[in-house]
Amino acid sequence: MFSAWYIPPEWIDENQPPPKTIIQAAQLASKAAKSNPERRVPFSNIPLLIHQKWDTTRLNGTKDMIVSYIEDWLVASISPPTGSSRMAYFLWDNEGISALVKEYEKDLTADFTEVFSPVEKVDIFRVIACKWFGGIYGDVDTKPLQHPSKWLDSADISEWTDEMTGKSYGLDSTALTRVSQSLNESQPVNAIWGIECDANPNTNDHWRWAYTYPLQLTNWAFASAPNQPILQHYLDLIPDKAAEARNKASQSGVSVSDLHYDPVTRTGPVAVTDATSWWLEEHDGLRWNALTGREDGGKPKLVGDVIILPITGFSPTQEKHSRMGEKPWDDPEARLAHVAMGSWRHTNLIVEYGKFCRTFFGMCKDWQKMW
């Protein structure tokens, strides 16, 4: 197992034997972060642990751009800017992921191994890692624009109101003062998600742009404290998705691996949006589309213990023109950037024609978006 990791030396007790596996290292770092508020994202219980995944930690032959982004995360972990905290860093390989699933999610092992595609396995893995250890997940083609120890401030968790329902969320001034004076105690934020699509729900813009929902979350980056319930809800749905695939394969007389499912829908951004929206609607009475940043210039919104960043948070743009209110990489709301170099993608003519058909003709709404 060639997974690689870095844990700040000050996080490790002198008598602590060094970890032998990435799982032991993640356990150690998660426990160490819990003991010190400076080792967590501000106003949160999210430990400063970075999780990334690559097929191997031997990066010879890997695209230079990918290596440069991994190096950016490592530099942010080892030598952060003045005033920022060091972080633990974990680069998981396939063997490390398999060991993690077998040790921590034994009941999912067969489905994980037999049913899901490689990209879907990574989707599921990132949720498992953050569920058990907490931390920040970022695809290897993400670039940190702000150090995670600076990601949240008091304005991000302050009270806001859904003008349509009149319901308020977040912390009022009294609660904000109390939280600011008790940083050693449990903090209000246990998860951070970012918006990747923020379209007008009264139009068909979202699906013409290849999104399932007008307001859709990304999963190329997110952050969580250990045991945040939305992550468990996501995982609770995995067996049903696997059973559906097994039944379909049986009825069609083919193997499960011969079936084609859209990973974006089954395990990716649509799946995390489904899990998060259901949880916040069910437990906090949220009107999902109230999270839009189209009407307030794009502000973070706290609902329950979850922060939803505006589209600029994890999806800033380098283009001159913005479709959905995305702002530039140097905007104060931009935490990280995604350069969409996903190596798992490959060209499929049906998928490519579907993009053209949706964009120019407003048709082909339900065609598969990834293959």
TrEMBL record:
GO terms for biological process: protein N-linked glycosylation. GO terms for molecular function: alpha-1,6-mannosyltransferase activity. One of its GO terms (cellular component) is mannan polymerase complex. It comes from the Eukaryota. InterPro entries: GlycoTrfase_DXD_sugar-bd_CS, Nucleotide-diphossugar_trans, Och1-like. Belongs to the glycosyltransferase 32 family. This is Glycosyltransferase family 32 protein. The lineage of its organism: Eukaryota, Fungi, Dikarya, Ascomycota, Pezizomycotina.
